[in-house]
Write a structure and sequence with these properties.
Layout lengths: L1 E6 L4 H13 L3 E4 L10 H13 L5 E6 L3 H7 L7 E3 L3 H9 L5 E5 L5 H13 L6 H16 L1
Parallel strand pairs: 1-2, 1-3, 3-5, 4-5
Helix pairs in contact: 1-5, 2-3, 4-5
Bound molecules: D-ribose (RB5).
């Protein structure tokens, strides 16, 4: 499974931790930057990784900024992207199981590295439940079609 990673300067620290963590677990990681703590604009980075998910190059995207909020808002502007900003494992599991989220957003200034790696692990390991949730996702797709 290939995972797209991207961060702004504030998220850089957790992105580096996540890269190491995922590679140790056998995932192939595609790192879309940023590559230092020099200030950049989070929508640019979020869009690069989200685009790789949208185009099927990567199964999931994991985005990082100060809070996870900015990158999730930006990623959700791309058609077919369902980005979830998570600060706990339960939300990450439900984001996959119920919402079939394909992008996880985390905040370096909010979530410590230990918890962040657990959230990532839960996210990439939890399957979508399908069933009744499919009709709800279809409604989201229709909203997207009308609005984007
Ligand atoms: C950068 O200072 C910060 O605004 C950004 O990383 C993010 O938290 C925005 O949502």
């Amino acid at each position: 499974m290939q995972v797209a990673l991207a961060a702004d300067h504030a998220g850089f620290f957790l992105k580096e931790k996540a890269k190491e963590f995922l590679q140790e677990k056998g995932f192939t990681v595609k790192d879309f930057g940023t590559y230092s703590e020099e200030a950049v604009d989070y929508p640019d980075l979020a869009a690069k990784a989200a685009r790789a998910v949208q185009q099927g190059e990567c199964t999931y995207g994991i985005l990082f900024c100060g809070t996870g909020v900015g990158v999730s808002i930006a990623a959700n502007k791309l058609r077919g992207i369902r980005a979830a900003c998570c600060t706990d494992c339960y939300t990450a599991a439900m984001a996959r199981e119920h919402n079939d989220a394909n992008v996880l957003a985390l905040g370096t200034r909010v979530t410590g590295p230990g918890l962040a790696m657990r959230i990532i692990e839960v996210f990439v390991q939890t399957p979508f439940a399908g069933g009744r949730h499919l009709a709800r996702l279809e409604k989201i797709r229709i909203l997207e079609e009308k609005e984007l």
